[in-house]
Design brief:
alpha/beta; Metallo-beta-lactamase, Chain A; seven-stranded mixed sheet; about 20% helix; about 240 residues
Length: about 240
């Protein structure tokens, strides 16, 4: 199972992990700060608000309480009920697909294609799913409609967090993405070559590989040479 494989590999490293170096982006509403946390987790901060994306198991000690929590999928490397409880405050809004709402109470459900605003943040749920890969014949690791990727817009800046997905038509059709977070690890998502092909199709200004355990990031970078897309590598895993 995905949870067993990935969480076993991450468990020791994450326990002692500090967040990666924050990066700032200019928007029409002021500065937005992005902090890599772990594997599929990242934090956005802007306008005095905190957005946590896919807070999974591991140490989140020292992180501020979240105003908004976005969850992409049911797998344990994308959510942890104890971690969510640690990050919640009375006013926290949790946004997730319906499958997640069965295990996380008080969830605002977004289905694929839904868009909802939370203050200055606009959240659009994008499909994320496997095309061919699964645990056995006739099964997929991620069925269409179960999980969400998200396009997050703040002050005109459009950020795409893909979640666990292959090179799907809905990703390739995205427009005007400033910053993208793209997964690549087998057998659950894509190869670096497939990820690069997807990125070439929708042409974000900046792309970060994330959820990349065991992948050769140099292959991804080489495949995007000459594309005009800036590739940024950041550490989502403890060294």
């Amino acid at each position: 199972m995905k949870i067993a494989h990935i969480l076993c590999a991450l468990s020791l490293a994450i326990a002692a992990r500090a967040a990666g170096k924050p990066e700032e982006f200019k928007t029409s509403a002021g500065t937005l700060t992005m902090t890599p946390i772990q594997h599929a987790g990242l934090m956005l901060q802007a306008g005095g608000q905190v957005v946590q994306i896919d807070p999974a198991q591991g140490s989140y000690d020292g992180f501020p309480a979240a105003d908004l929590i976005l969850i992409t999928d049911i797998h344990g490397d994308h959510l942890s009920a104890p971690t969510i409880a640690k990050l919640k405050k009375a006013s926290t809004v949790i946004v997730a697909p319906e499958a997640v709402a069965k295990s996380v109470t008080g969830t605002t459900i977004l289905k694929n294609g839904d868009t909802k605003s939370f203050g200055a943040w606009s959240i659009e749920a994008i499909p994320m799913y496997n095309l061919t890969r699964g645990p056995s014949a006739g099964q997929l690791y991620h069925d269409k409609g179960r999980g969400n990727g998200y396009v997050i817009t703040y002050g005109g800046l459009r950020m795409y967090v893909a979640g666990d997905t292959e090179n799907i038509p809905e990703m390739r059709a995205l427009k005007n993405i400033d910053v993208a977070f793209i997964p690549m690890n087998l057998p659950y998502t894509m190869t670096p070559e497939e990820a690069a092909a997807a990125v070439k199709a929708f042409k974000p200004k900046i792309v970060y590989p994330y959820h990349y355990m065991g992948s050769d990031l140099k292959v991804f970078e080489t495949a995007l040479n000459g594309s005009g897309i800036e590739v940024r590598f950041r550490d989502w895993y403890a060294r």
